[in-house]
Write a structure and sequence with these properties.
The structure is a homodimer of 183-residue chains.
Chain A lengths: L1 H8 L5 E4 L2 E4 L21 E6 L6 H10 L7 H10 L2 E9 L2 E12 L4 E9 L8 H15 L4 E6 L4 H5 L3 E3 L5 E5 L3
Parallel strand pairs in A: 6-7
Antiparallel strand pairs in A: 1-2, 1-3, 3-4, 4-5, 5-6
The complex binds coenzyme A (COA) (2 copies).
Chain lengths: 183, 183
Amino acid sequence: MGFWKTWFSTPEAVASSRTNSFEEMSAEVVGNSSSNGEGVTPPKETRIVFSTERDIDLYELEELCDAVGWSRRPLRKVKKAIEHSFLVATMWQVRGTQRRLIGFARATSDHAFNATIWDVVVHPDFQAKGLGKALMKYVLKKLRSEEISNVTLFADPHVVDFYRTMGFVADPEGIKGMFWYPQ
Amino acid sequence: MGFWKTWFSTPEAVASSRTNSFEEMSAEVVGNSSSNGEGVTPPKETRIVFSTERDIDLYELEELCDAVGWSRRPLRKVKKAIEHSFLVATMWQVRGTQRRLIGFARATSDHAFNATIWDVVVHPDFQAKGLGKALMKYVLKKLRSEEISNVTLFADPHVVDFYRTMGFVADPEGIKGMFWYPQ
Ligand SMILES: CC(C)(COP(=O)(O)OP(=O)(O)OC[C@H]1O[C@@H](n2cnc3c(N)ncnc32)[C@H](O)[C@@H]1OP(=O)(O)O)[C@@H](O)C(=O)NCCC(=O)NCCS
Ligand SMILES: CC(C)(COP(=O)(O)OP(=O)(O)OC[C@H]1O[C@@H](n2cnc3c(N)ncnc32)[C@H](O)[C@@H]1OP(=O)(O)O)[C@@H](O)C(=O)NCCC(=O)NCCS
């Protein structure tokens, strides 16, 4: 499939893991790296890989969003939103030749000053292992490389602290996030 | 100029004014409407006209932003931001054949679910006459016509009440606007 070709020819892996623990790496780790100097690649080596590839199976994405209890959205609109997002970031568990979508985030932007991050999600099986933070780091790195200076988001109350650990500040200088509801 | 052709062939005027007062109109008012049934069009009739045309003189826009004390931004980036905004709304004072840029707003979006409004400004000479509200109504109408359900913005503390008058709510259900600052 075209997907895998793109994937492995321009790997954007930043993290590698065995079972539960994972290391963040600046080097590319996709390929048959022997993982711990013992010269042996275990058959079930697990890697966490990041991508900005937009060729996402929408049903797989829906499954991921279902897993955290988000209400379903028309796939037609999800497709449109992905096409028109400035950045789409996915996180995959790769074991041998199999891959599983375990994280997602996207950002809208004017391509110049502002970006706004939406729909950050990590599959419950993979939460609380630092992977949400790794995904966000990946997103921020990509946005910075595009010279976006103002990175924003709207955080549900239970994840405000999650974003704080990454350097996000709520209501800086009294700036308020506002949502419009027809009167 | 192409600008005027587009302008008058697809008028999107929603407001008409004489000196200070103005009326919002659902009908198109651009053209030589005799304004109050007396059958006379005064030579200095003033109309306020709205547009989504992106062919904006960047120096005129810079002047408008200067007038409210915003710090200058590289025009190259302003141009890019305008190109990549989902919606660009301008407000003009039209007197005879002259036009003057007196208001501006733009929105980024994923074209499906979310839009975020940025850079809302009304020239000081025209503030506190209801024109900011009219501009925002125009923006909201355009976003709604594109089926955007979630309209958001980040409001400076001194304009939170301005947006409240239009139905914007700060921190609904505890959702927090957050800005990223590199640690
Ligand atoms: C929010 C979410 C993306 C976090 O992903 P994660 O992989 O569990 O987070 P991490 O393990 O990388 O945590 C990173 C840091 O944030 C903290 N953290 C994680 N989730 C948190 C939460 N819900 N509240 C407060 N802190 C949290 C961790 O303790 C960790 O702190 P540390 O760096 O000091 O150790 C994930 O829980 C999720 O997908 N939730 C459901 C969807 C959701 O609510 N998305 C946000 C919508 S606005
Ligand atoms: C904010 C701004 C766009 C408002 O435009 P305006 O044309 O003066 O506003 P309007 O006359 O349409 O006011 C509409 C309503 O908001 C209220 N309002 C206007 N400015 C306000 C302010 N700064 N604070 C509180 N309320 C305000 C008005 O009283 C009016 O209320 P009403 O409908 O109950 O009578 C304009 O003042 C401006 O350009 N300011 C400088 C740039 C700026 O700060 N932009 C916002 C950046 S986040």
